[in-house]
Amino acid sequence: MDHLVGADHDGSKTVSQNIFDVRHGADETERAAEDVLNASRDVLQRSSQLGTSISEFLRSVKAA
What we know:
Layout: H1 2-63
């Protein structure tokens, strides 16, 4: 019977470790998603600035 208690303890330890690993993976995924979101916001801002610069350049060429 003692070997069953030990097996239950080992199983609980394994489940606990698996839960920890899943939570750690979820945290890593959340951080990566935040990085991607921030990068996409940066790209959007830079593309908007580039569009403005191109428009200004084209207006100056037409005016010349």
